[in-house]
Amino acid sequence: MIRMLALLLCAGLLGCFGRSPAGEFRLDAPSVENADFGNALFQTVAVTLKPGNRIDIVDNGRVFDAAIEEIAKARRSIHIDSFIWSEGKVSDRLIDAIARRTRAGVQCRIMVDAVGSPSFASLQKRLEGIGCEVHRLRPIPGQDDVARDHRKLILVDGRVGITGGFGIDDKWDGDGKSDEPPEWRDSNARVSGPAVLDMQQAFSENWQEATGALLPADAFPKPIDAGPTWAAFVASSENSIATRNDRVTQLMIATAKKRIWIANAYFLPSTPIMALLTRKAHEGVDVRILAAGDHTDTKPFLPSQRARMDQLARDGVRAFEYAPTMMHGKTMVVDDSIVMVGSCNLEPLSLNRMDEGALVAVDAKLAREESRRFLDDLARSTERVPEGARKTAGR
What we know:
The strands form 2 sheets. The protein has a 15-stranded mixed β-sheet, sandwiched between helices. Strands 7-8 form a two-stranded antiparallel ribbon. The chain is α+β, with helices and mostly antiparallel strands. The chain is built from 11 helices and 17 strands. The protein has one domain: Endonuclease Chain A (Endonuclease, Chain A, 2-Layer Sandwich). Strand 12 (about 285-290), helix 9 and strand 13 form a beta-alpha-beta unit.
């Protein structure tokens, strides 16, 4: 983890990985009402929004309750891809739940990132001892020590998936409102329906890298109609032009007509994203940013993050820092119906080099629920109002 922070410091302060060759996407902001967003998403990242999904937000420690509930139902397979997996109570609960299913003949496949989980050896032995196939992805040194697997996926039978910002570590347990002991604030989603196949494909891609093997055909069951939500999972990897993470972020912002509410732990966006946010604020869109504050786990970045937030505040964006504890979420709400929840940070490594994943959904009810959570978080946050900040509604 120390090495990872050093790499991040290099990226943030020297800008060595902050390239964005594609520049600002030249899109006429699509109208969700006439279904252009789905078409724009397909053109931008080659992913199709599909109906028939059910999405439940499982914030903070509730993500582990949801994971254990779904693992208990497993009949064929349990797939887990995690950047961080550490010893502790959360890990013990998950391993116990997995063991009950592997004893019943369920196949369990697990990947962790070698940098994100540097002390994983003893856990790997435990997991292999209960019948799991386990791999540490991209060991150090490697061909590219910076391009980490930062995705967070728990998949059961190819029918339900969980994704978001969580790591398998005790600091993600709790309610996200306390720093003694640390209980990080994070956002995650449980998904049933066709979007789970996108998530399973993302897992399969990294599994092939780790093992050279394909998943069995029954890992991709025919999707069922689980709910009313149009959704897709956007998997992103390093790209010499622009990653899908960068592209979908810019598309989401370009789409907005009314509001863009972003919660993102590490807010060091590229120049094109900064320009898009500024343009939208000047057009009268309600742009609000929530980032980690004094409890951040990457304090060397705080001055750079605050400089960007203050720059945006002077252009009419409202910028906030979460006060109670570390805020690790990565969400976006656009207008009245578009929501994104995933692992994607708005900083150079995540935007350009890491494997990431984001669930994109079009659902007015889900957008209302996520907006309520965002406002609850703002009520616990401190707004940055630098000298010269433009007057906006509510400020």
